[in-house]
Design goal:
InterPro entries: A/G_AdeGlyc_MutY, DNA_glycosylase, HhH-GPD_domain, HhH_base_excis_C, HhH_motif, MIG/MutY, MutY_C, NUDIX_hydrolase-like_dom_sf. Its cofactor is [4Fe-4S] cluster. Its EC number is 3.2.2.31. The chain is an alpha+beta fold. The chain is 43% helix and 14% strand. The chain contains 15 helices and eight strands. The strands form two sheets. Strands 1, 4, 5, 6 and 7 form a five-stranded mixed beta sheet that branches. The chain has a three-stranded antiparallel beta sheet with strand order 3-2-8, with no helix packed on it. Strand 6 and strand 7 form a beta hairpin. The radius of gyration is 24 Å and the shape is elongated. The model has no long low-confidence stretch (mean pLDDT 91).
């Protein structure tokens, strides 16, 4: 039995039940693929259900405001995905009358849709024979064919894509693409794969040559940057605080946070004398209380954020910046924030 047929046979016997596998509606498939980029299925599934409930059609998503979308996305990370999702929904709804492109070439032109996502939608919704290549596929192909070309190199991307094209099942493109992804997720796992019961074990080069644990090869990641975030959490007797919206093209664009001092080796005295704090507090009386002794380390793909929260007991300043808002404690849960701040808000503001 050829490679593709073995995988499809395995898939039909072992596939997980997923709501997006019960439809060929391109809106639902697109939504699931964007949510599952850099996200495990177990984490992404509740978000998919929330989005399809809140926005049953692409028109509903297009008509939502960005804050609604970001709030629903909260906790998934990589927030540019949510902004691209919203932009593409507007384009499809307003420029394409709600009809998604029905070819790989058309789909890949959509904002936030790359080679993998376009291939998945085209094969699943329109039976176009274009192969998907994601982390799971790289791992299966690298191990089965014994390929040690780094998967995140220019040469590797080209080599694996060309190989994937030759292996594509033209009779059942949707089943094949879903099969190889599911096989990588469940059977040919990154660690401790189930080689002893693998349907491909008799012809797997990595298993034959003892290289299962070292394939696929990946070039070492970029150096991690450390950043130090110190948040000023205003705490008033009438239960109000201050938040501000992040702007620019850095992390968390469009999300809300507390007033921020980004600086290493800082304490309450340094906070009290910092220009950001002085500009806000003016001549009002205040007390600064560190919320925790040790910094909370929040790890992003290329950054580690060392974060502290400082409770500022004071009246709200009479003048705040244009990008800042005064909000009641009860309202703060309605604003989209990074998960790091969401966790703090859930604990601190419930207790006070």
């Amino acid at each position: 039995m050829i490679f593709s047929k073995k995988l499809i046979t395995w898939y039909l016997q072992n596939k997980r039940s997923m709501p997006w596998r019960e439809t060929k509606n391109p809106y639902h498939i697109w939504l699931s693929e964007i949510i599952l980029q850099q996200t495990r299925v177990a984490q992404g599934l509740p978000y998919y259900m929330s989005f399809t409930e809140a926005f049953p059609t692409v028109f509903d998503l297009a008509n939502a405001n960005e804050e609604e979308v970001l709030k629903l996305w909260q906790g998934l990370g990589y927030y540019s995905r949510a902004r691209n999702l919203h932009a593409t929904a507007k384009y499809v709804a307003n420029d394409l009358n709600g009809v998604f492109p029905n070819t790989y070439k058309g789909l890949i032109q959509l904002k936030g849709v790359g080679d993998y996502t376009a291939s998945a939608i085209a094969s699943i919704c329109y039976a176009e024979a274009v192969p998907v290549v994601d982390g799971n596929v790289y791992r299966v192909l690298s191990r089965y064919f014994g390929i040690d070309t780094p998967i995140n190199s220019t040469k590797g991307v080209k080599e694996f894509k060309e190989l994937a094209i030759t292996l594509m099942d033209h009779e059942e493109p949707a089943s094949y693409n879903q099969a190889i992804m599911e096989f990588g997720a469940l059977q040919c796992k990154p660690k401790s794969p189930y080689c002893i019961v693998c349907p491909l074990q008799d012809s797997c080069e990595a298993l034959k040559n003892g290289k299962v644990d070292i394939l696929p090869v990946k070039i070492k990641k970029l150096k991690i940057k450390k950043r130090y975030f110190n948040y000023l959490v205003f705490f008033t007797e009438d239960k109000k605080t201050i938040i501000q919206q992040r702007v620019g093209n850095g992390i968390w664009k469009g999300l809300y946070e507390f007033p921020l001092i980004e600086s290493d080796a800082i304490d309450t005295d340094a906070i009290a004398s910092h220009a950001v704090f002085r500009e806000m507090i003016k001549d009002k009386e205040y007390e600064i209380i560190p919320h925790q002794q040790e910094a909370i380390v929040h790890k992003l793909s290329h950054q580690h954020l060392y974060t502290r929260f400082y409770i500022v007991k004071s009246d709200i300043p009479s003048k705040i910046n244009e990008d800042q808002k005064i909000v009641d404690y009860e309202e703060i849960h309605t604003y989209p924030v990074p998960i790091l701040l969401g966790n703090f808000i859930d604990t601190f503001f419930q207790q006070n």
